[in-house]
Specification:
The chain is of the alpha+beta class. The chain has 2 helices and 2 strands. A two-stranded parallel ribbon has the order 1-2. The active site is at 2 (proton acceptor).
Length: 77
Amino acid sequence: MPHIDLKFITRNLTEAQQHAISDDLTDVLKKHFGSTDEAVSIRLNEIPKDDWKSEVYEPIIKAHLDELVKKPGYTMD
């Protein structure tokens, strides 16, 4: 039962764009985890640009760099 909490800088996505992203991510999870549509849950979490460092970069990215499968190509020091 995979769950994705996707954080990104606010893009004001339309409902159609949100559904397209969700469908694509669901397809990836189904392919690699053998999941079903019913087992997948996804949260699209828009973060204002001014809050990215304090809400995402510092506590989630920087604090867990050694655990990231894909590291960012930027720093916010």
